[in-house]
Amino acid sequence: MSGVGEVGDRYVVGVDYGTLSGRALVVRVRDGAELGTAVHEYRNAVIESALPDGGPSLPPDWALQDPQDYRDVLRHAVPAAVAAAGVDPRDVVGIGIDFTACTILPTLADGTPLCEVPELRQRPHAWVKLWKHHAAQPHADRINALAHERGEPWIGRYGGKISAEWQFAKGLQLLEEDPEVYQRADRFIEAADWIVWQLCGVETRNVCTAGYKGIMQDGKYPSTDYLTALNPDFGDFVTKLDGPLLPLADKAGELTAQAAAWTGLPQGIAVAVGNVDAHVTAASAQALAPGRLVAIMGTSTCHVVNGAQPAEVAGMCGVVEGGISAGAWGYEAGQSGVGDIFGWFVKHAAPAEVASHERLTELAAAQPVGAHGLVALDWWNGNRSLLVNHDLSGMIVGLTLATRPEDVYRALLEATAYGTRMIIEAFVEAGVPVNDLVIAGGLTSNKLLMQIYADVTNRPLSIIGSAQGPALGSAIHAAVAAGEYSSIHEASQAMGRISEAVYRPDPDRVRAYDALYAEYRTLHDHFGRGANDVMLRLRAIRNAAAGSGASTNETALEEVA
Torsion over CA of 419, 425, 426 and 427, rounded to 10 degrees? Predict the structure, then answer.
């Protein structure tokens, strides 16, 4: 961390809400210097098997969270970060937040989460649905099928498919599996907007999540006629989603007395409009110019890039005007499992003597490209882009008795790079340029992985100059909301940081990876585009064996038979 600085300096706080914890970062306004940080781990983490305190068990593919964990980040991480920075809290002029998305919760009209209503606490659908809650896949399938059948104009803006992770699929699942909780929900709101509501006492919606996760295009949500065709009782869903819509980097309101007591910050400072962890990082990576793709690589990867005009890209997560920054069309794609896959292998599959990322990377780095004879499909957590199917699963082809742990580990690293190349090629083929990549997130420290990405994509890789890209991005947005800069572009240039072209593609390795990528693409299309639905059949058999509901799984088996 940098030293505190000059008399009269002003500071902002960025809070990054991740999958397992929230991080607060104190940043100096004039130059983006990071002065202090603190992390608060969520007490309930990801709720996947059963509700807390002896609550009911959850079916497969559920992922919930407790909103109290989000408030606790404000109570613990923010004051600790300010203390670590050694700044006077009275010199803090704004706070901004970002969130994993789509992470969404049902609330009463005053913002009270339904899981905090005593009689609803044992109802799973009353809790926050985390981004990786994938149990709404059948509902997403129906949303997509009906949209194509009716020729809905918005479906092309999402690459032809709405994800099971997003607002409408999760909302439809809520209605059909627990209609009482659905009726009690006055609001169905992104966690990013909910925590801003907690901070400033004003309900708002940000254009980013409304556009990418909420199917808002050209100022409109899907029509009531379409929604009632999905389910006659779904026609009021937009009234639960709708709220004052604000552009990114705007001021949502001012810090309330209650939130000031939580955070130790001055009452009345600016609270920036909520944002998404990936999209907010573009500002901290100085990557707002069209053609510069930011890949935020952690447990999953989100890819965002600005374009000068709208285009329909098959399998993308969406294109939204102003979705990354004002004055551009922001594109998003993603991979549901990246670091999670590597972590799975180290924890569950690697022998004890090599069961660390450092040792496996060291061994894998000694191999020439292709020496392991393997190709993997990176679908351990389903496929977000381009197939938009979270019922898909992983695969490794080429295993022999000579295969060693480092071979598999390298093949998994490479598989995620191939998935990113699929996304890049889809953008380029649709007329959205991708000239270079900027990498952010926790995986930037793995030099082998970074070089593999440069070689597989045949593009130079720059590295963000901050280990806390989302938190820094939120702080930059807070500086604009507080009036310290006139635009996010100006603030990004002053406060963001990047190391240019740290990794460059090697021509020989590029050629070798071209051959392997061709095999990946063949497998990708064969198992992901309907030629062989074995992965879907296996998942249906698994769910039936786990007792998740005979009728549902018989239907699933029939659908993929």
Answer: 110
* Cβ neighbour number for residue 333 with a 10 Å cutoff: 28
Using an 8 Å Cβ cutoff, are 70 and 263 in contact? no
Give the tens place of pLDDT for each residue, 85-143: 999 999 999 999 999 999 999 999 999 999 999 999 999 999 999 999 999 999 999 99
Kindly state the tokens that stand for 248: 């990114």
| pTM for this model (two decimals) | 0.90
Q: For the ranges 82-86, 237-241, 543-547, which has the lowest average pLDDT?
A: 543-547
pLDDT of residue 551: 35
- Residues in a beta bridge with 246: 206
- Interhelix angle 357-365/405-429, nearest 10 degrees: 80
Task: Return the ∠ at Cα 12 (arms to 269 and 301), rounded to 5°.
Answer: 120
Three-state SS for 137-200 is: HHHHHHHHHHHHHHCCCCHHHHCCCCCCCCHHHHHHHHHHHCHHHHHHCCEEEEHHHHHHHHHH
Tokens of 225: 């006629």
- Over range 342-360, report the average pLDDT: 98
Separation CA 416–CA 393 (nearest Å): 13
Helices (H) and strands (E) in the chain — how many of each? 19, 22
Contact 218, 123 (CB under 8 A): no
